[in-house]
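Q: Hi! Curious about what D-alanyl-D-alanine carboxypeptidase (DacC) looks like structurally. Here's the sequence.
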Amino acid sequence: MWKRKQKHDEDDALVRPSSRLALFQNQTLGNLATQKKVAMVGAVLVLILSIILTVAALENNVQTQSVGPTQTALPMTLQVAARNAIVIDAKTGQVLGEKGADKQIGIASQSKMLTAYGILQGIKKKRFTWDSLVTITQQSDWSKKDNATFSHLEISVGQKLAVKELFAAMFTSSANDAALALADFAKEQNQTQQQALEGWAKDLKLTGSKWYNAAGQVNKDASDYQVKDANPDAENTASIRQLAILAYQVIREDPTIRSYYEKRGLVYHPSANETKIKLTEGAKFDQEIKAKLSNPKNLTFEGLKTGSTPASGGALTGLIKDQNGHEFITVVSGAGRYTDQVQRYQNTVDVVNQVLDHYTPVTYQKGQAVTESQFKNKNLAGGHQSLVVGQSRTFWLTKGRTAVGYQRPSRLQSIVTKKGATVLTVQPTLKAKFLPEVNSKEQKLQLVNQQTYHLGHWWQRIYHWLKFW
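A: Let's find out. The predicted structure is below.
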């Protein structure tokens, strides 16, 4: 009896382990199935949430809307005696009027603006400073030339002048030796002067222009700077649009040029103990030309550079200011005979007057609230952000137009919160023409925070996302 029970217990002991294993396996399989279901549900929920957030992100990022009117203000055709002319807004580069603006013509001393650009780039790159001394070489010593034919300073080989003195001499007295010495100083050591000029022109994309020397002399008159393998009658050429680009870049890099026509005498120092003074073009303008002009709108000449050839006639690249403080870059060429000093200035006055009669300036002042200035922003407490104009901008519209609209995003993604900080720039809805090399930011409205904002909590952000706004 005892033996039979013992055998039964032994048999039972042999069976139990396998039963337990089977039970464990069944439970494990059930748990795995449950986990898979939970994982699938979780994945579906994540996918749905991702789709919701993606759609919300697209809603916030992609949508833009137009605010205010769309305007057209393409350049007017200038009616002027000069064969070639252009007027642009000196701040934004908006082209306001033009006539034969893309024809390549001889530019003579206006070439000195490219030399100025090369100098300004060298200063910007810290290769030298305004106070760096430039040595007058045998090539750049023009002291023995006829000053009535070839304008120059009273400087000779071996003397040293500061960059700023020679730079001013190029603009205030059209000194050829100053331009030649500066170009030699600014060029790379392994370059010819012509190669340096061509490189600077390439930087500005002055396609089709020709360059031989920094002073703008006809090749055969350039003395030691004559390009031997070029035609003796070859000369620097560019279009008046390209001259406007040059003027725009030079004024942008050196705003002090605005004061050059105020100078009645150019003071320079050929040596430490020597000071010389030369009459400036601004002084000549005041003494000999200003009273002869018909200038009903009292325009002010602030500069910039004369230049004439027998073929191209009288020419002037000007910086002109009206009575309301608006500045214009102008270029006229073929304005009377190349020896005439009055017509180039009169034609400049005439083209600016035409522009002022045709256009109305619409200015967005710094701090001004723009139309519909409240922007939705999910990142901020309250979900809204008020923006104002950060930098004054003037757009020229045809007479009778008083406002221009702009493109703005429906919602903001930025988390810029500080008062006065730039949040975005918006493109005015203005069909107009601008100089191709003008910084696009100058053509847009900069919008900044009206006040300091605080970031929203994470649950606020999720709430704004899920609302789809």
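A: A fun detail: Residues 81-359 form a domain with the Beta-lactamase fold (CATH 3.40.710.10).
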